[in-house]
Amino acid sequence: xxxxxxxxxxxxxxxxxxxxxxxxxxxxxxxxxxxxxxxxxxxxxxxxxxxxxxxxxxxxxxxxxxxxxxxxxxxxxxxxxxxxxxxxxxxxxxxxxxxxxxxxxxxxxxxxxxxxxxxxxxxxxxxxxxxxxxxxxxxxxxxxxxxxxxxxxxxxxxxxxxxxxxxxxxxxxxxxxxxxxxxxxxxxxxxxxxxxxxxxxxxxxxxxxxxxxxxxxxxxxxx
Length: 223
Description:
The protein is α/β, with parallel strands linked by helices.
């Protein structure tokens, strides 16, 4: 049985109006996730923020083994949205028990793709908006060329800090995993949670080729 602790950073009482909803939604996320995979023991840290941006209602991250952090804007709290966001972080939490999030672009693409499909497996419904971003022309080729790079620009690929749309990396990862799951219906995001990233590289190569982009097999920056 998973041991998990919730830490509510609430000394200034910003979370107080939604404390009971936070606790219930957190229990719901853990229960739903546990029906699909074994969760490791972990700490859940929740703090308030004042973010009025489109995605500022709830933002999560799992940057280390056994720790999930969630920042939420209390007056925008929605239990379903919160639960869905937390389930996404549960996927990252499980992946930390295997290869981890990853240091290269390819590893990050697979980690985010798995997280997006894990949300669908656990919660159902349609893909989250961040998983359906339309990549700019030539992005698949760029991703192939940078697949193994450990000095890739994470904010550019995933956070919209540059010339790429926010969520570009998430949507590429989601598409890669969608192709794999279509080819191997016996697999699920949960069973692939700790799978190595490298085998998925061939899927990205095929996707790039299918869209008429140059095959980057011999790209000097790859590998």
